Amino acid sequence: MSAGSDNLPIAAPSLRARPALIRHLPYFIGAAVLVVLAATLRFDGYVLNILMQATTFTIAVFGLSVVLGLCGQINLAQAAFFGFGAYAVAIGTADLHLSYWICLLVGCLAALVAGAFLGMSTLRLGGHYLAMVTISFQQIVTLVMINAIWLTHGPDGVSNIGRPQLFATSQSYLAFCVAALAIVGYAVWHLPDTRLGRAMRAVRDNELAAGVSGIDVFRTKVYAFAICAALGGLAGGLFAGGFAYVSPDQFSFAESVVFLTMSLLGGVASPIGSAIGTGLLILIPEWLRFLKSIPGLYLAIYGLFVILIIRFMPDGIWGFVAGAFERWRTQAAATPAVKTLQLQPAASGGEIVLEVRGLSKHFGGLKAVDGVDIAVRRGSVHALIGPNGSGKTTTLNVLSGLYRATAGTIMLDGTEITGMPPHQRTAAGLGRTFQNIRLFRSMTALENVEIGAERPGNAMIGAGGDAALTERAMEALTFVGLGNRANELISSFSYGHQRLIEIARALAANPTLLLLDEPAAGLNSTEKLELHELLKRIAAQGLTILIIDHDMTLVSEAAQHITVLNFGRRIADGESMAVLRHPDVVSAYLGSE
User: Fold this and answer.
1) Mean pLDDT of 64-93
2) Of 28, 35, 232, 295, whose CB has the highest number of CB atoms within 10 Å?
3) Same domain, 424 and 557
């Protein structure tokens, strides 16, 4: 855990700074070539159907790349949303004789609304509970398709589904579907580099850290679910126009499992993986058609193939390839020279930055925090100490919004934040680190710090866009001595360096108050000395710090003011050395004897 150096090599201009059109020109050219080939090459009906199915299914699986790959939320009802789009086009064009385009739009919107509603009502559950709810939703939709004969025609399905006049032939309609696939694939591929995409990745990796970094975790999950459902609806609408017939058995729970398997097989985190997985699961049965005469052998080989890929490539085929490429890229990437990190904490609330009055947190009959008062002066380093179980971390969790206060008020820079959720407190100027390091493990150090820098209200970013965001993150990493390793994945860093990255993430947000929960935990003596120097450099820029730590040497040297808790109550408060000599403090730590 070294102090680092500001003498960093100057890199070529960032890829983000290049015009998007030039940067993505190869993709556009490749997509245009595929569309032209789909429109001009002559396929027989069998090949045409295979390509149509692969194209439309891939768009549906793109949705799973968003909700599962980016956001980490399970969805076992994608076939239901696929059915929303398919039946909207089928009923609208065949029964109501409406324009195909209107029907396709209605299908996408119906799926989006259904996905958002399902997400808002269930995403607070998470895990296997969320899986059960989505399965139930899928079963309900399937039953409605079968039994609402007046609307869906029941098991007989809907035939004679219309297409747009411009794409009336199967060949031209396939070209249209390929164009839609290219557009959606482009959007999903670049979603991780947007603000929403970064928020989804943060939520997937660590929800608590995402919340205190300024991300509205619940809203981000709902957005992911709604996007997934909308893509399912779009795919279903294209599917209905391509095959001119739909029936309920095409949108059953079994199809949702197929979509999920396609996503996992190719690589759930990437649209390229989605395309690979979809293509394989559609083509493998066709390749094994000659074995269908032998009962059971076809399914055995098919299942074995899927199991082997998932077993030996847990991130999917594309995940395996992309992982190797990413390791090479991070080693080859150069690091740009950056300016010195500037901290400009807000100063609108007077001399006291944090004022806590009568703060209590009860867990049933246990009073973890009981009527605590704390006043943290602007520009100071204030320590909150106490024996194990005294309520220090609980207090910090209440201050940052992870726990809701039972009683009391919290004022941050003149604004009451007592009832705010974590992301709103972060926007108000509160930053924190955790005793147990909470970083986004699938990201690089730079990407981790960018999440912090992107907090709402960060005046140091303003409207500077991605370039300003990256620059700010690099400044924070360089400040803690890790700027030359910005492009490395978190897994390559030592424990002490991961602590520095977490501090850099908080500093990049330019907070008004920084909460440090046991920053010296797990560090050796040299790393503790370096941490002390880092705290001095932070304090020198006027940032107010509230620190919890058991290392009394660090606390006594770094903090000007100390508050002591014992059994959830404040037993001492004042100037550092006087508090450490207080009889009640000595008794709490060493015993009355």
Assistant:
1) 94
2) 232
3) yes
Can you tell me the distance from the alpha carbon of 209 to that of 489, in angstroms, rounded to the nearest whole number? 17
Quick one: pLDDT at residue 584? 82
Q: Specify the residue for token string 């031209």.
A: 172
Domain termination site, one of 253, 271, 295: 253
pTM of the model: 0.85
Instruction: Tell me how many domains the chain contains.
Output: 2
The pair of structure tokens assigned to 86 is 């398919």
Query: Inter-axis angle of helices 316-332 and 253-266, to 10 degrees?
Result: 30
Long-range contacts of 22-26 (CB under 8 A, 24+ apart): 24/186
Asked if residues 396 and 448 have their Cβ atoms less than 8 Å apart, the reply is: no
Domain for residue 217, yes or no?
Answer: yes
The string of DSSP letters for 525-568 reads: HHHHHHHHHHHHHHHHTT-EEEEE-S-HHHHHHH-SEEEEEETT
- The whole-number pLDDT of residue 14 equals 43
Q: Which residues contact 29 (CB under 8 A, 6 or more apart)?
A: none
What range does the domain containing 454 cover?
352-590
- Cα separation, 63 vs 363, whole angstroms: 40
240 and 378 within one domain: no
Q: What is the pLDDT of residues 495-547, one digit of tens each?
A: 999 999 999 999 999 999 999 999 988 888 888 888 889 999 998 888 999 99
Amino acid letter, 244: A
Q: pLDDT band for 326, please (50, 70, 90 cuts).
A: low
